[in-house]
Specification:
Largest sheet: 11 strands, antiparallel
Number of strands: 11
CATH class: Mainly Beta
Distance between the termini: 18 Å
Helix content: 10-25%
Number of helices: 6
Structural class: alpha+beta
Order of helices and strands: HHHEEEEEEHEEHHEEE
Strand content: 35-45%
CATH topology: outer membrane lipoprotein receptor (LolB), chain A
């Protein structure tokens, strides 16, 4: 058990170094008076996660940005998600080297309630093995560690919306969307979240520098999230400095077939990972 716990910490520490921050989203046009559905932004956003469950599935793109020490890096991911099963798959690409070449192979991540499975992550791990991390044991609940925020966790975080403003309608990827800007509270979100996400959000509420999370969210006419950008703040364990991270999730192709199969026990690596 101690070796498995070390494995989780090593993976988290290794990928946390690469995780990264950026700026806020753009504003739209219009007013709440023009759109009756925007009359209660807080309640609209708190119900966004449930609307995704009704939608079933979607494709997802993620980006995570961080600027530290004069260097800005971005981690990008592509995949799909099943909101009813709360499972998803992402192919995450770590930043290039200063020479412009890929320093690491893309990491395959499988997302599940309470767990993150990674392949191609960690020195000494056989190529055909997965590494499993308990997300509730991570100080950020895997909102940052994996280099991508779980799409459903990103939506569940909006259940903790404290304040929100409707900024009007705009267009995103050819779809008319409604732009909201607000602040969510991680502890409040954890209390209202589904069982599979609750523990992870609760861990993040304790582990982040602040439980308040500013966000920009873009919802379509059916109330489905098309884009959400969160700005997290955590304390760098080594330097004890506060690091700001911007995580953006894009959702599209709702209803697309999704087939995520979690690794069998025999395919999960239980040994030590080099840090």
């Amino acid at each position: 058990m101690a070796e498995l716990q070390h494995t989780g910490r090593a993976v988290a520490a290794g990928l946390m170094v690469c995780v990264c921050v950026g700026a806020a989203g753009c504003a739209g046009t219009g007013s709440a008076a023009e759109d009756p559905r925007a009359s209660d932004p807080v309640e609209t956003l708190r119900h966004a996660a449930g609307t995704l469950v009704d939608a079933g599935t979607s494709k997802a793109s993620t980006s995570m940005e961080m600027a530290t020490g004069g260097t800005r890096v971005t981690i990008r991911g592509e995949g799909d998600y099943d909101y009813r099963r709360q499972v998803g798959s992402l192919r995450v690409q770590l930043p290039q080297t200063p020479a412009g070449t890929a320093e690491h192979r893309p990491i395959t991540e499988l997302l599940a309630p309470g767990a993150l499975f990674m392949k191609n992550r960690g020195a000494g791990v056989p190529a055909d093995k997965w590494v499993r991390v308990d997300t509730a044991a991570l100080s950020d609940g895997n909102l940052v560690t994996g280099g991508a925020t779980d799409p459903y966790a990103a939506a569940e975080l909006l259940r903790g919306t404290r304040t929100a403003t409707y900024l009007g309608h705009t267009e995103f990827a050819g779809v008319e969307v409604r732009h909201y800007r607000g602040t969510a509270d991680l502890a409040t979100a954890a209390k209202g979240a589904s069982e599979g996400v609750r523990a992870s959000l609760a861990a993040a509420a304790k582990g982040f520098a602040t439980a308040e999370v500013p966000f920009d969210a873009y919802l379509d006419d059916q109330g489905r999230i098309r884009k959400v950008r969160h700005r997290f703040s955590f304390v760098n364990g080594r330097e004890k400095s506060t690091v700001a991270v911007a995580s953006t999730t894009l959702l599209y192709d709702f209803g697309a077939p999704v087939d995520v199969r979690l690794p069998a026990s025999k395919d999960i690596y239980a040994g030590k990972i080099a840090e």
